[in-house]
């Protein structure tokens, strides 16, 4: 929605959003361990019959999220001009990117609390509450974006502010549910240094794993920037649609996290294997369907994002490539979820480093030799959604074939 609303402010605004959202999502993405590690830990304790302990893990994770959110929001607001400058954008694109980052920065507190609270509820096998809050948040965010950008004429600043306000509201809603559950179970609501440190320690391998993933995404944006405004604007839309598909496919990964964690906590290895097999089937199948729909319909939805014919063409051809690679993504995301649910973060950290090493020279070659415009976006999309995702598929697939990741108990 951000991309659709901002895209009609002009190519520079859409390119600025590409830079800003890449930076913002990198900050949030590095903290995704707040959800993933919490889901796995809560699910294990629930599987072992320790409901108060499960909710205590969730409360500690929320305190960690709040602390990190305050620090990172302040840091991002201050460092926004420098961060955007490092990406090498022209003056107008850089100005738009800095504006979006500064207006959206306060929402980081909400974004991280949403991660921790959602991870807790998923670990408790409650996926309906996060769904309800997410749907409500999406609707509210859409209305706020249109009202602030076009109604109050705030431009790209309105888009950033709308996102920040929505995330803070979602955080309050989800935190309220977790706090109510903790009180019912008799868990403490006070910040406990030991519990907060344990949450941080368990999340460190996933932080390292996510750092390699976000490094690849930032590198991709940097390459797109070097190929010109048309490529960068097209990349923003392609990456946004890819991200939408990734969230859809990630639903299966998150189901795998919660179910695998619960099964291993209960010591049920055969059920763990069954979950792995079934979620992989669904992941690849869903990837095929999403690839056909999003790739085949690109010419229909590209005009929703921009009136620039060159950017529209770049979006269409970029999405055709991304659609072809979507089944690979379905496989990768599910295996990620299975291994995260098993607490196999250390392996994922090393695997992430290997895949990044494989991807870097390919991305640099695209920057050096690919032409600007639509053709450049085709090569860049093929490098990321093809080469990078295949490398992730190979490493996680190799691990899943063995048994070292199936550690039972709490």
Automatic annotation (TrEMBL):
Keywords: Membrane, Transmembrane, Transmembrane helix, Transport. The chain crosses the membrane at residues 12-36, 57-80, 100-119, 131-152, 164-182, 216-235, 241-261, 282-302, 314-335, 347-370, 376-394. Coiled coil: none annotated. Pfam families: MatE (PF01554). One of its GO terms (cellular component) is plasma membrane. The keyword Membrane applies. The keyword Membrane applies. GO terms for molecular function: antiporter activity; xenobiotic transmembrane transporter activity. Multidrug efflux pump. Belongs to the multi antimicrobial extrusion (MATE) (TC 2.A.66.1) family. This is Probable multidrug resistance protein NorM.
């Amino acid at each position: 929605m951000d991309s659709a609303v901002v895209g009609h402010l002009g190519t520079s605004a859409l390119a600025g959003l590409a830079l800003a959202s890449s930076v913002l999502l990198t900050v949030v993405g590095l903290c995704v361990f707040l959800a993933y590690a919490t889901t796995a830990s809560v699910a294990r304790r629930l599987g072992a019959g320790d409901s108060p302990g499960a909710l205590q893990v969730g409360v500690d994770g929320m305190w960690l999220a709040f602390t990190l959110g305050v620090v990172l929001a302040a840091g991002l607001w201050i460092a926004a001009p420098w961060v955007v400058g490092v990406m090498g954008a022209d003056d107008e694109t850089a100005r738009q990117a800095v504006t979006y980052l500064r207006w959206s920065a306060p929402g980081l507190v909400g974004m991280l609390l949403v991660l921790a609270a959602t991870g807790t509820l998923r670990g408790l096998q409650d996926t309906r509450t996060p769904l309800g809050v997410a749907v409500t948040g999406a609707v509210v965010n859409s209305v706020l974006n249109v009202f602030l950008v076009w109604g109050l004429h705030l431009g790209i600043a309105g888009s950033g502010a709308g996102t920040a306000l929505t995330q803070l509201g979602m955080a309050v809603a989800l935190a309220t549910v977790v706090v109510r559950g903790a009180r019912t179970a008799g868990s403490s609501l006070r910040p406990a240094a030991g519990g907060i440190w344990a949450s941080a320690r368990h999340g460190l391998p996933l932080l390292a794993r996510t750092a390699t993933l976000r490094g690849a995404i930032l590198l991709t944006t940097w390459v797109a920037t070097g190929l010109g405004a048309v490529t960068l604007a097209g990349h923003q839309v392609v990456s946004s649609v890819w991200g939408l598909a990734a969230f859809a496919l990630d639903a299966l990964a998150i189901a795998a996290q919660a179910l695998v964690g619960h099964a291993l906590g209960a010591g049920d290895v055969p059920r763990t294997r069954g979950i792995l097999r079934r979620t992989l089937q669904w992941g690849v199948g869903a990837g095929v369907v999403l690839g056909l729909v999003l790739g085949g319909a690109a010419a229909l939805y590209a005009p929703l994002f921009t009136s620039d014919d060159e950017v529209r063409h770049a979006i269409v051809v970029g999405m055709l490539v991304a659609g072809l690679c979507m089944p690979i993504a379905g496989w990768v995301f599910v295996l990620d979820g299975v291994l995260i649910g098993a607490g196999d973060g250390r392996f994922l950290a090393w695997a992430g480093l290997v895949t990044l090493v494989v991807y870097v020279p390919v991305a640099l070659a695209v920057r050096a030799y690919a032409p600007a415009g639509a053709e450049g976006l085709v090569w860049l999309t093929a490098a990321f959604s093809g080469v990078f995702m295949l490398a992730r598929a190979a490493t996680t697939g190799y691990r899943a074939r063995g048994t070292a990741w199936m550690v039972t108990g709490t």
